[in-house]
Design goal:
mainly beta, Jelly Rolls, 4-stranded antiparallel beta sheet, 18 strands
Length: 396
């Protein structure tokens, strides 16, 4: 048996069987020109919707407004823009963002997997870890290390800034080793020094008593002069150095190293034959000269001059003229000596001259005892030959 909704084994809805159905008596009249009422195309609807609907109402309540596509479907995807988002009034997310969040929450890619495990490649090696003492040192020595209380580095210039230590004191308890403190009883215990010998090599300052000087002997003939070079002389009580008698030669020699000549009739100093007496000293002197002339009849006149400041002194000059004749000159410190005119017998040989004398220097001697030479005739050379000498010595 078929029900009103069944047709040939299928269920079909017939308009006649719908309860409380609307009246559609005018429907066919309204759509008499439609060929197929079962299908209404988009083009047919758009062909009928011409113009602007300014307002409309809905049964069951008021309300109104517009639904322009340009306002509510700005991305032109056929969906109202707000229908594509989820919003709680404060936060708004698109459907895509919601989907991605849900997918990620339930995806294995965010599981705690081996890709995020603490692996050996990120292990911390203990090789360079500071020791316990090093960690303790990081606290610093004064205050807490910080940006304003920094450690001193090796290149800090203050490390090489030499400074004079401030004056300070230490209690005896801080002194290492042996020390004498101010209340040590030995500081006030007067003691007589123990007799002992002092090695002369350790004496490098002060003045020694004369009794400490070595005695003269065959190996120690005198002290050492101020120059520090041994000379064989001894220091006299007047502060001068003198050569002791006996032993070494007491004479000091000066000599002519090259022929000396002059053509002056005024006496000229023979510069190499002279000596300067020291204050308050007695001297003996002697000279042996070899003289020549350029012309036999012109005599070389030998002389002697005195320094000033002498207390006394005498001298003599003996000059040969021939093998049997001589000229003599005698005098004292009041006047210089000079041989008289004469003449040598030839000009090719040397002839001897002897000068002897003594002088006593006073407290302020000045100048030299010196041998002189003059020509008998102006313009004629006379000579003292090389090797001629003057010797002198002091005596007590």
């Amino acid at each position: 048996m078929k029900t009103p909704l069944q047709k040939d084994g299928e269920y079909k809805v017939n308009y006649e069987n719908i309860i409380n159905k609307p009246d559609i008596s005018n429907f066919h009249a309204l759509h008499a020109d439609d060929q197929n009422l079962g299908d209404i195309t988009k083009e047919q609807i758009e062909a009928k919707l011409i113009g602007e609907i300014s307002s409309h109402t809905h049964a069951g309540g008021g309300g109104g407004g517009d639904m322009y596509k340009g306002t509510y479907d700005t991305d032109n995807d056929g969906k109202v823009d707000n229908a594509e988002n989820v919003s709680d009034g404060t936060n708004t997310s698109t459907a895509t963002e919601v989907k991605d969040a849900v997918d990620e929450k339930h995806s294995n890619t965010l599981d705690h997997s081996n890709s995020f495990d603490h692996s050996n490649s990120l292990d911390h090696s203990n090789a360079n870890d500071p020791t316990t003492d090093q960690k303790s040192a990081l606290a610093g020595t004064n205050g807490t290390p910080s940006g304003t209380n920094k450690f001193v580095t090796n290149t800090d210039p203050r490390n090489t800034d030499a400074r004079t230590p401030s004056s300070h004191s230490h209690p005896p308890s801080e002194v290492t080793g042996t020390a004498v403190i101010t209340n040590d009883s030995r500081l006030s215990d007067a003691r007589t020094p123990t007799a002992h010998n002092q090695d002369a090599s350790t004496i490098n300052a002060g003045t020694l008593d004369g009794d400490r000087l070595p005695a003269f002997s065959t190996t120690k003939k005198a002290g050492v002069p101020a120059t520090g070079t041994p000379s064989g002389k001894y220091l006299k009580d007047d502060g001068t150095w003198a050569t002791p008698s006996g032993g070494s030669d007491p004479w000091t020699y000066t000599k002519v190293t090259s022929q000396f000549s002059t053509s002056s009739t005024a006496a000229v100093n023979v510069t190499e034959l002279a000596f300067a007496p020291l204050l308050n000293t007695n001297y003996e002197f002697e000279a042996i000269l070899m003289i020549r002339t350029a012309t036999a009849i012109v005599n070389p006149r030998v002389g002697l001059a005195w320094p000033t400041g002498m207390t006394d002194g005498v001298a003599l000059i003996n000059e040969s003229q021939t093998a049997t004749t001589q000229l003599l000159a005698f005098g004292n410190i009041n006047t210089a000596l000079l041989i008289a005119v004469g003449g040598l017998v030839n000009q090719t040989q040397s002839w001897p001259v002897l000068v002897k004398g003594m002088v006593v220097a006073g407290a302020s001697p000045s100048g030299n005892v010196k041998i002189q030479l003059a020509s008998e005739t102006t313009g004629t050379n006379v000579y003292i030959q090389a090797g001629s000498f003057l010797k002198y010595r002091s005596y007590a």
